[in-house]
Each structure stands twice: as structure tokens, then as C-alpha cells.
User: Fold this.
Amino acid sequence: MKAARFYDRGDIRIEDIPEPTPDTGEVLIKVAWCGICGTDLHEYLDGPIFCPTHDTPHPISGETAPVTMGHEFSGVIEALGGGIDDLEVGDHVVVEPYIIDNSIDTGETSKTYHLSPHMNFIGLAGRGGGLSEKVAVKRRWVHKISPTIPLDQAALIEPLSVGYHAVERAGDIRPGDVALVGGAGPIGLLTAAVLKAKGATVVISELSTLRRQKAQETGVADYTFSPQETDIVEEISKLTDGRGADIAFECTSVNAVLDTLFDAIKPTGVIVVVSIWGKPAQLDMQKLVLKEVDLRGTIAYVNSHPQTIKLVESGKIDLAPFITGKIMVDELIDKGFDTLIHRNETAVKILATTDPALLHRP
Assistant:
């Protein structure tokens, strides 16, 4: 079967590899669509980061490079390994793409399995990936979805779960709470979508005109401002009668954005850092101390997929507007990575498939 394989920094190859077969407790999925994530771009430009090297196997998967890429994917069950009686061939599914040691409690009440040692992801550290025709996945990580959700939109449930968990980390959201989102990249937009679904008033600060337009077009923001043209803190003060934002989300890994959030947040407010920072940040501790601000981190998701799926199935979140391109896996570098690296203001989520019939389906 065809698959996109990570060999090293700047070296991803489209190759033919053997099809997987499901072991006991595994589900064989025929992949429909797979999104290109910012993490994939970082691996291509700066990796290996999550991906293993040729010489050092991942501690849990045991695999070395090359590995199949792709962790944001949807598909249809093609076969079931032994011991699975709650799914059927033909079911539409998405994957919570974790690689986690078998000794870790990953039950439905766990809130920490995503923080376990050597945690990694299908499509980055081995065990197949969504940028291929088929993948075999442990039953625990397979989530059935309604066939009413188009499979292209379903591929965005994984990144939407990132936004869901980020909002969950902020605490209880009450209708009318003012949420300030710094950055309108894919995760910023999807975090805003969750906030709107929960009844918050969403304000987005974003330099890019095109990204602000996308935030408005998708309806995930009540207000959008450019920090170059507008005093964000002053606007938040006007919108809240001088109180300040109730919650804020840092989605850029830019220090100036974090500083703005501290100035705009109300005393006792919550700031959630969603972005991955490649370098240390500077923080004015007096702002944290004197306003009694809660600064919280968030990473990926933990038992977030079921509730995220319900939001989409209920119609509270429409994922269609966030899909800005569809390509064949063969075009991954030229039409996928190149667009997202060099023309990222024009793209939110680009999806890839190995099935030409899906690409040309209206």
C-alpha cells in the first residue's frame, strides 16, 4: 500500500509498504482523510522531534525511522482482530492517536494518561499512520462516529479535541464569559469554535488579515482585532466594562501575545497556554502575582474525544469551513507542506487521501 514515510529532517518519501493486518484487540481502518498538522511540519523542517531516529527506537513502539506519518485521520473499519465485539466492519471512526505504555491506566476516568512517560503518537513514533491507505490501531484508541459526519470533516476531530481539552483546562465556562484568544492559526480557530459552542463571547487577536477573515467567516469569533492596529487591552476593557477577560488562550508561542493576555485578563482570571514553545518565555511575575492570575498549560487531550464528537454530531460545531484544501498523498510535499510553510495565511487545514475517488467526490 502507499504511505508517506519520515526518514529524517527534510526527507519524507511516498513509498509502497506492506498492508497491516489487525492483531487481537486491533481494528484495521481504511483511511479516508488525514490532516496535515503543524507537528508534521516541525518534523519535516526541524526533526526528528517526536519521530524516532534511525538508530534510537521509540521506547514504547520499538520502531526506528522510517515511520509512516499522519495522526489526524478518519476512516472506515475494514476488519476486526479477535476479541472485539462492540464495533463492526463498515463503521465510520476516528482515532485518538496515542502510543502509551501498557502499564498506564487509560480508562475513561483517567485524566493523566497523556502525561505518562514516553507518551507519543501514532503517525509520529510508529504503529502506522493516517498518511497511508490502511492502519491497524488498538481498540482503545478507536472512536465510532455517526455516518452523518462527512469523513473529511471527521479528520478534524483530532485537532478539535486539542481545543476541547484546552477549554476544559480553563475550568467552567459560563455563557457570556469573555474569552480572549491570541492567534488564529488552526488550533486557535478550533479552540475558539469550542468556546463559542459553550456560549462564550470570543475575541481573537491576530496580525494576519486573512486569518481574521477566516475567524469571522467561520463564526468562531464575535470580535477580531489586529494588535498592530488596535490596543487589545483597551478593547477588552471596553467590552467588559473595565473588568478584563475572564479567560484567555495563548496559541502563538509569541512572547508579546502572552504579555498582552496578562494585561487583558481580569484579576483571578485564567490564562491557558496552548502553543508549543521552542524557546523559554519571559514572564513579568508581578502581573501574575498582583492579579492572582492562574497560568495553566495544556497538551493534546485526555478522554476528550467522546465529548468532542458529541459537539460535532449535535451540530454545535461545523468543521467544513476549516477545510481549505484537499490533495493526494503523492502531492504531500508540493501542495501540502509547501503551502503550509510558505503560504500558511491562505490555509487552515489541508487534508490528504490515497483514494482519488474521494478527492473528486463533491
The radius of gyration is 20 Å.
